[in-house]
DNA sequence: TGAAACAGTTGCAAAAATCAACTAATACAT
DNA sequence: ATGTATTAGTTGATTTTTGCAACTGTTTCA
């Protein structure tokens, strides 16, 4: 473990700006008028259903502050991609649920994502790709700890 | 495999603002008064010496527009971390060179980066880490093509 | 019962990114 | 060689994004 850890900064630095840009370009092609981050919100709502994250949670997952997330969700709600409803068990919390339309947008996003990913991963063997995702998830979970 | 695989975008969506934030926190501790992005500029200048990227190139690498990079470089030049000089072979281009002070800041940045990275990679075995970086390199080269 | 904590909201201020227009230099096609 | 297009860099104005602090309503807990 001590051996090969090199600075991630530059590496991550480029992927972290390049990937969203590639996604944004694809969104434009397909006339999706939302930002990458807005679609990430939808993805989080969809894929973290079990824990049903509220705005605060989403903000933590995305490392944004809650005002930012609130404003993204305002737009998404206005456009009917998701719905807010007060949690009956804790009326401070907003339960966020995807609408049919919102779900469709997650599908579109995943399609774009897949397109970009396949492109980037082309030429690698499956097991390496698996490991990559594993490590990436690990990093993500470590970041959550703060 | 086809079922509910979390798209890469979701992970990237969560780490992409986390990493600069973690770096910024470390910078604050060590009283480095620059942003993560500014330090990335220095790193690019240092590590892409062979191709001696000009402002435009740096902008492309970082997926920012050239005005943004220009202003970052203004600051870095004012503070004596790098120098601009006109390329004698093409007087439109500015050759960017690190000063001694600038180099020292890249060292500091790399140290911070390493600290963060080690932390994030903790708990992974060496071969996974190796694979991860291998895949990362691959992705990066693919992104370069675009 | 009251203090502290928490999710959400709002408006304002600060920071960052974008855009269009411009200069100066170079490349290139005719 | 001449003029057109392209390129790197620069600037100022504008817009977008972000961050902060204060506030509400609700819950927790001592």
pLDDT averaged over residues of chain A: 89
Q: List SSEs of chain A in N-to-C order.
A: HHHHEEHH
CATH H-level superfamily of chain A: Winged helix-like DNA-binding domain superfamily/Winged helix DNA-binding domain
Binned, the helix content of chain A reads: 55-70%
Termini gap of chain A: 22 Å
Instruction: Give the C-alpha Rg of chain A.
Output: 17 Å
Fold and architecture overview:
Chains A, B: Pfam families: MarR (PF01047). Chains A, B: This is MarR family transcriptional regulator. Chains A, B: It comes from Plebeiibacterium sediminum. With 146 residues, chain A is mainly alpha-helical. The first copy, chain A, has helices at residues 9-29, 36-47, 55-62, 66-78, 100-121, 126-145; strands at 82-86, 94-98. The first copy, chain A, has a two-stranded antiparallel sheet. In chain A, β1 and β2 form a beta hairpin. Chains A and B meet through α1, α2, α5 and α6 of A and α1, α2, α5 and α6 of B. The first copy, chain A, binds a DNA duplex (30 and 30 nucleotides) through residues 54-56, 64-68, 70-71, 90-94.
Features:
6 helices, 7% strand, DNA-binding, Arc Repressor Mutant, subunit A, 146 residues, mainly alpha, homodimer
Write the topology of this structure.
The structure is a homodimer of 146-residue chains.
Chain A: H1 9-29, H2 36-47, H3 55-62, H4 66-78, E1 82-86, E2 94-98, H5 100-121, H6 126-145
Antiparallel strand pairs in A: 1-2
Helix pairs in contact in A: 1-5, 2-5, 3-4
The first copy, chain A, binds a DNA duplex (30 and 30 nucleotides) through residues 54-56, 64-68, 70-71, 90-94.
Domain HTH marR-type (chains A, B): 1-141
Pfam families (chains A, B): MarR
Organism (chains A, B): Plebeiibacterium sediminum
